[in-house]
Amino acid sequence: MSELARMLDALGALHPRRIDLSLDRIERLLDALGRPQDRLPPVVHVAGTNGKGSTVAFLRAFAEAAGLAAHVYTSPHLVRFNERIRLGRPGGGRLVADDMLVEALARVRDANGGRQITFFEVTTAAALLLFAEQPADLCLLEVGLGGRFDATNVVDAPLAAVLTSISHDHADFLGDDLLGIAQTKAGILKRGRPGIIGPQDEHVTAMLEVEAGATGADLFLNGQDWSAHQERGRLVYQDVDGLLDLPLPRLAGAHQIDNAGIAIATVRRTGLPIPTAAIEAGLLAADWPARLQRLRSGPLLEIAPDGADIWLDGGHNPAAGHVLASAMAEMQDRYERPLVLIVGMLTTKDPRGFFSPFAGLVRHVLTVPVPDSEAGFTPDQLADFAMEEELPARAAPDVRSAIAQIARDYDRKPPPRILICGSLYLAGSVLRENGPLPE
């Protein structure tokens, strides 16, 4: 075990609960560290249920195309922890090196003095410490869970707060009341600071307007102040400052039009020094692994049917199910193939809500365990949920076995389209086994 892995394991034992939403512990720890959150480059704080990571990926790509250095904090990681902390550099950022991360974590550990603190709070403090001490032009912070009491919500005056699509997820921590979830996520809005709001349910939008009124935030609303849509193979963005005719994003799926639009709206509303040419370049360069990522090589492709497509996505909640089903339907319209899902899912998720949008679209579902997790549905349980939603399903011991089974079942033309989904942890295990590894 590496020194970094040993330290992360030790720090993870400082609190009996993996998630315990509160700002008291992180604020006490940051005070002991000299308040690094007050010395950050301009911060864009991003919350939401789906689309946070993709929106951050677009913002990073825009900034780097403009020659800006952008620090980035996201979670969870797919393959190795370092993916969570990207240090901005001119010409492109780099994932934090092991030795630099170990040193920062040691300082956080010493400042904490053995008191209870969650793993996410420790690692957030380490990221803020690194970001405060490394020069950059911009700092992109993705909320871990919720918003109001998330450990990232310690910046008093961000450049902007961004809210992507809000829907149901993490009911065990956020509850199942959509407006209550929206109110929690709106906790990142700050007085006198712009809040860029992506496409939302109309009731969610109304709740966000109420929260912004109480907070004194200045909302920039999709559908009222800005819009983004696809037209004739282009992304058309419009706001009060004019219209942009842009290339479609590199990231696959119609939902990425919304995420790209949120990122463009953030640039336009905040006045970041990012010209249109950099936005164009960033749309074509943005990369976000395991978000409708096509696997083009590796051992899993070698055992798949000849000519099969394999797509990987970490989507795991009902809203993600709708997005993925829509993306698959769009692909089917262009080139029809048998669609087969390989799904693993944690017990904190809603499998029936996830499966429901695929009814009538999917030829077959193969369910698998989530590797290295004791909190997942068994493949048999998950197959039962799929069949309750009228999707033919059966269990498989792992992803490799599932693909081998697909190769036996679909040995005729046209070759199948395979979507591996249901869990970011499952997606990470696929990348670990097959590649490419996130950079």
TrEMBL record:
Lineage: superkingdom: Bacteria
UniProt cross-references to SUPFAM superfamilies, sorted A to Z: MurD-like peptide ligases, catalytic domain, MurD-like peptide ligases, peptide-binding domain
InterPro entries per the UniProt record, alphabetical: EF_Hand_1_Ca_BS, Folylpolyglutamate_synth, Folylpolyglutamate_synth_CS, Mur-like_cat_sf, Mur_ligase_C_dom_sf, Mur_ligase_cen
Domain Mur ligase central residues, every copy: 46-266
Enzyme class: ligase
GO cellular component: cytoplasm
The EC number(s) this enzyme carries: 6.3.2.17
Cofactor(s) required for function per UniProt: Mg(2+)
UniProt keywords, alphabetically: ATP-binding, Ligase, Magnesium, Metal-binding, Nucleotide-binding
GO BP: folic acid biosynthetic process
GO terms, molecular function: ATP binding; dihydrofolate synthase activity; metal ion binding; tetrahydrofolylpolyglutamate synthase activity
Catalytic activity: (6S)-5,6,7,8-tetrahydrofolyl-(gamma-L-Glu)(n) + L-glutamate + ATP = (6S)-5,6,7,8-tetrahydrofolyl-(gamma-L-Glu)(n+1) + ADP + phosphate + H(+)
Pfam families registered for this protein in UniProt: Mur_ligase_M (PF08245)
Family the entry assigns: Belongs to the folylpolyglutamate synthase family.
Protein name: tetrahydrofolate synthase
Organism the protein comes from: Propylenella binzhouense
High-level lineage: Bacteria, Pseudomonadati, Pseudomonadota, Alphaproteobacteria, Hyphomicrobiales
